[in-house]
Amino acid sequence: MPADHAADASVPKRNSRDGNAQIIATVFVTFVGYLTIGLPLAVLPTYVHGTLGYSTVMAGFVISIQYIATVLTRAQVGRIADTRGPKRTVIWGLMAGFASGVLLLASALLEGVPALGLGLLLASRLALGIGESLIGTGAIAWAIGRVGPEYTARIIAWNGVSTYGALALGAPAGVYLMGLLGFASLGVSVMLLAALGLAIALPKPATAMVGGEGRLGVGRVLSRVLLPGIALALATAGFGTITTFITLFYASRGWEGAAFALSVFGVAFMACRLIFADTINLYGGLKVAIVSLVLQFVGLMVVWSADAPAMALIGAGLAGFGFSLVFPAIGVQAVASVPAANRGSALGLYSMFLDVSLGITGPAAGLIASCFTSATPFLFGGIATVGSLAITLLLAAKGRSRQSA
């Protein structure tokens, strides 16, 4: 891969159609990479508990260890993207995905020795978590480098659509493959997908990197993305309560259609990202985030107070529509707060707040539900969303003060 040396000024000006094509070509690599994550996701608990014979607690740990690996490597991966180049970061991520497939296949072949099968499976999940971190951060930085920072909001939004779309497609595909060809087929499929991603990514040009003269240390980058990151984490708590507890909420009321509520939530989320991503450039990230958070709060309050399935359905749709643009809208602020040489580090650290929030929200909301009612987690999510809105308003006020000065 060629050494990168030029600054952002070397990115040629592109028309919108050319820019969109470049973004789609890059985020498609993300789509392929996240298919490797989605394929085994739905079948792992059954495999660990039913085939290997371990407890449900261990089955949950096998799922969680991937996200732990992702969180712990976010900061380092951001620095790799800044210093070694985002293309190389993505390539390494796909290679980690390929290694995960090899380990997954080995686990299936050695399932007769449960301890060894479990150990290989845990190693596979660790490799996949590292790969997710590398691809998730590297692809966004790569796309920004290819088309310019003015496309940041669109890149983050479309990259998110490819991520969630791959997970949504990969999970049922994995269940189908498991039933048709057995668990070993998932390892082979993950390897093939990672190889496909490498075949797509390798011919694409590397982007010019900014020189390191103005590069900040990790601590200073973290201090600059701290408030946007906390705002994201609080908003994500609202998102997490919907995805984690809507099915239990429906069951506690004796309602049917919880899966449909999740579908409405997901469709509203992706439709908003596809249709309204450019409003961030038109009106500013913080203004869009404020409107989005108000919509998310209203949606969560509708679910919390719902006395009929249709009402909960409307609330879930509003919450999905509202949360959709929060990550890219506040993310633009986070990326803009650091020099271009720290773009990868800012993206990695900012994304870490989402990972941590999702890890905490499930247990916290479960504790709240056990102490109060099945609807209370949505009130908790609404309160967290108000906290996110308060921080976003503070960031907007600071921005206005700087402009006045």
TrEMBL record:
It comes from Labrys monachus. It is a multi-pass membrane protein. The keyword Protein transport does not apply. InterPro entries: MFS, MFS_dom, MFS_trans_sf, MFS_Transporters, MFS_YhhS-like. It is found in: Cell inner membrane; Cell membrane. Keywords: Cell inner membrane, Cell membrane, Membrane, Transmembrane, Transmembrane helix, Transport. Its main location: membrane. Gene3D superfamilies: MFS general substrate transporter like domains. This is Uncharacterized MFS-type transporter J3R73_002268.
